[in-house]
Every structure is written in structure tokens, then in C-alpha cells.
Specification:
This protein is an alpha+beta fold and 272 residues long. The protein is 31% helix and 26% strand. It contains ten helices and 14 strands. The termini are far apart. Keywords: FAD, Flavoprotein, Oxidoreductase.
Length: 272
């Protein structure tokens, strides 16, 4: 075992200051960092605990948005989110231990290619609010997700809040790997006023979460599963591993998208 400094700040301002050390890392729910520490994949000299900070926990509805603070556990979102699709997504992450420790901010900062939260934030067209030594920044979801395990988060910054517009209808459906409960493919569909539709896909692409813009264009004029019939998802660029080959994941994307649209159009919401 190697030694490190464990810092438990009393405020968000103290946390930001503590993270300015060259080898410091933030600790939210620990669902990614703790396994990385055990395997020596990460060896920081300082770990800064965020989960106990009241400024970073809680959610509310304000100005037509759901505002979720960065260290809010998945289980709390599952219990309190006013959007059923979002509540069921959060309630389907991992197992009870993961849901009560893992946080939305940690998931978005890590940007695992098979995680559920990136699909929700990108599918709803949310905004990620962060804070660093230079002050707060707001990053639109389309700019936040930059690739595999890569985001617009800068060194020393903390995810403080996620703002998600409330849609007219939404659903999230995934085909999950039974052991890890990560998505082999997952699709979040959201319909907004004026016919605007967003479709985000997770778990399938080798480059991480992405928007399926061809589906969005067809669904904007006909929000039904049948509207997706002309589309064919290419296996090029899809993940291929021991869990599923690329062509299987490509097939799943269309099948699951149709199910998500059907759920959202019926007024029900789902998380497979």
C-alpha cells in the first residue's frame, strides 16, 4: 500500500483549492476511483472527498429544468426525479450499493462508453456546470462528451450541477450485460415542444456516447417506431468485445431505439 493525503474539505471553495495540487484527484462515490487505486491504475498523492459537501448534493426543478447537484447519488435521483424516464434510469444503475454511493457527477466526469448517465444528459440536451480555481463554467452536453473516457472537464475542476430541460416525453431503454448491468446498447429518446427530438446512444460505439441525428430528423416529423424503418445502423465504429460483436451492437441500436420511441409515444417510460 502506498501513502496519500486524504482531504475532507468543509466547503466547495476548499475542495477546489485542495484539488489544485498537481497530483490531486476528486473522490465522489468512489465507484471508479477506488478500483483504480486498488489496481494501481491511479496513484494520486492527494484525494479530495466531495460526497459530504451539502453544496453538491440534492436536486430540484427550476425554470423548466431538473437541476441535479454533482455529488447526488443515483439512488436519490431514482427516488426524487420528477421525470420518470430519468428516475428509472438512475434506479437501474448497478446494484443497491453502487446506486447509494455512485454519483451523477462522477459518472459524467468518467464518461464510460457504456454508462447510462451520458445518454440521458446528451439525449435531453443538458448543461454541465463545473467549478475550478478560475470560477464556474457551463458546458453544453454536445460539447461535454469528447470521446472515450474524455470530456471537457479540466484539471482541478469539479462537476457541481447538471441542468436537464424537461421534455414533453422521454424514455430510456437498454440491453444490459447481466453481470455488470452496463449497457451493451442503450438509447435515450426525448421529444420537446415544436417537434424537436433528441436521440442519444450509449454502450454501442467505440468512441462513446453519441447522438443519432438521422433518427432525430425522421422522428421530428413522425414520432413513432415506424419512422425508423428506413434506417440501417452501420457496424463500423461499433464496440466489439467478448460481450458482443460490432454487428450485434449495431442491430441492437435500432431495435432498442424503436422500443424507446414506442414507450415515450405511449406516455410510459422505461429503463430496460
Amino acid at each position: 500500500m502506498y501513502s496519500l493525503d486524504f482531504v475532507r474539505p468543509a466547503s466547495l471553495a476548499e475542495a477546489v483549492t485542495a484539488l489544485q495540487a498537481e497530483d490531486a484527484l476528486p473522490l465522489g462515490g468512489g465507484q471508479t476511483l477506488i478500483p483504480a487505486l486498488r489496481q494501481r491504475l491511479a496513484m494520486p498523492g492527494r484525494v479530495v472527498a466531495l460526497a459530504a459537501l451539502p453544496e453538491l448534493v440534492g436536486l430540484r426543478v427550476e425554470g423548466g429544468e431538473i437541476r441535479i447537484r454533482g455529488a447526488t447519488p443515483h439512488a436519490r435521483v431514482a427516488a426524487e426525479a420528477p421525470l420518470p424516464a430519468l428516475a428509472r434510469l438512475a434506479g437501474g444503475i448497478g446494484d443497491p450499493a453502487v446506486r447509494h454511493r455512485g454519483t451523477i457527477g462522477g459518472s459524467l466526469a468518467n464518461n464510460d462508453p457504456a454508462a447510462c448517465w451520458p445518454a440521458a444528459v446528451l439525449g435531453l440536451g443538458g448543461v454541465v456546470r463545473v467549478r475550478g480555481l478560475a470560477g464556474p463554467r457551463e458546458i453544453a452536453a454536445d460539447a461535454w462528451f469528447r470521446g472515450l473516457f474524455d470530456t471537457d472537464l479540466r484539471a482541478g475542476e469539479i462537476v457541481t450541477e447538471v441542468r436537464l430541460p424537461l421534455p414533453l416525453a422521454a424514455a430510456y431503454v437498454r440491453f444490459r450485460q447481466p453481470a455488470s448491468r452496463f449497457a451493451l446498447a442503450g438509447v435515450f429518446v426525448a421529444r420537446f415542444a415544436g417537434g424537436r427530438v433528441r436521440v442519444a446512444v450509449t454502450g454501442a460505439s467505440a468512441s462513446g456516447v453519441y447522438r443519432w441525428t438521422e433518427a432525430e430528423q425522421l422522428l421530428a416529423s413522425d414520432f413513432s417506431p415506424g419512422a425508423l424503418a428506413p434506417l440501417c445502423v452501420s457496424a463500423e465504429g461499433m464496440l466489439a468485445d467478448v460481450q458482443a460483436p460490432a454487428d450485434y451492437r449495431a442491430h441492437l441500436v435500432k431495435v432498442i431505439a424503436c422500443r424507446a420511441v414506442a414507450e415515450a409515444a405511449s406516455g410510459r417510460t422505461a429503463c430496460g
